[in-house]
Amino acid sequence: MSRALIDFAIFIAELILRIVFDILAAIVGPVIYILERIRAGPRKDFKHILITGGNSGLGEALALAFAKPGVRIVLTARDAARLKSVSEAVSAKGAEVVTHSVDVTNAEKMAEIIQKEDAQVPLDLVIANAGVSSGTINTPGIAEATKPLMDINVQGVFNTVFPIMDSMVKRRRGQIAIMSSLASFFTQPELGDYHTSKYAVRAFSESMRGMLGRYNVGMSVICPGFVESRMTAQAKRNIPLPFLMEAEPAAAIMKDGLERNVSVIAFPFPFSLLTQLFGAAPAPIRSFIALSFTNAKFVARRLKVN
Fold first, then answer.
1. Are 118 and 176 in contact (CB under 8 A)?
2. Are residues 35 and 62 in the same domain?
3. Mind telling me which residue stretches traverse the membrane in this protein (predicted)?
């Protein structure tokens, strides 16, 4: 039997197994969902929150969503001027606000800030939100853009999570959230560096949830679709942005999911369903679809092909 026939047989077997698995999931899924919600515990009321990348976009929207009297919100970002503007808006809603101008890639400084804030008032919720897209890195070439993007999107998450993790485990309470993306469920040829970074932090979050949950520490991964921000404003020039959401309703969904300790907060529903179905398809199907909808001009620019 030729290798091509063997590959085809494997493809058919994979399709059959996926159908069987989906049928089993439909049968036992509701029971598992109920058990997971029971294990997640009661709804949380966060009083001391730290958000990285709090100067714009989803970070700003989350800060405004959580802001109310009696809540202390710590915002970090590189842009001090923009942080000041956001802090004023958050303060206007009655929350106490503290800002730190810091780059999430600076592990030593991040640890110093997080541990100092936690020592002053124990942090209830830490959101590792800071991130960039392929389009916001100064160079369009994927080879040059990948390292700085991974430093922010992946190492920046580690620099935010690890300094608070031990304290939360010791006191047996707290919630950590990591900003991933629906891009973590599928791959798009033009944005391989971005998809890789978001898949990495989603895998990290889902793994850590099992570890931290044993000590009553929640871990959620947020997987939004396209939300209005400076990042999506730049992305619009190169790729279509289906199901684009305003920041305020997106923040409301994230806030509700974090308060309920939901494991994966993925939205909006239609786009989430499509991306997860696409990501679960056999490799030949994913490859065919990806190549069929590639933006040739953007790919050429990223590969520096004339």
1. no
2. no
3. 15-35
Does the pTM surpass 0.90? The reply is yes
At how many degrees (to 10) do helices 283-292 and 269-280 cross? 120
* Residues whose CB falls within 8 Å of the CB of residue 264, separated by 6 or more in sequence, listed in order: 202, 206, 220, 221, 223
**206: buried, middle or exposed (CB in 10 Å: 19+, 13-18, 0-12)?**
middle
- Tell me how far apart the alpha carbons of residues 28 and 296 are, in angstroms, rounded to a whole number: 43
- Do 71 and 103 lie in a common domain? yes
Q: What is the pLDDT of residues 117-143, one digit of tens each?
A: 999 999 999 999 999 987 777 777 888
Residues 1 and 142 in one domain: no
Give the DSSP letter of residue 79.
-
Which residues form the domain of 146?
Answer: 47-303
Rounded distance between C-alpha atoms, residue 40 and residue 32, angstroms: 12
Q: Would you say 269 and 223 are in contact if contact means Cβ atoms under 8 Å apart?
A: no
CB 124 within 8 A of CB 46: yes
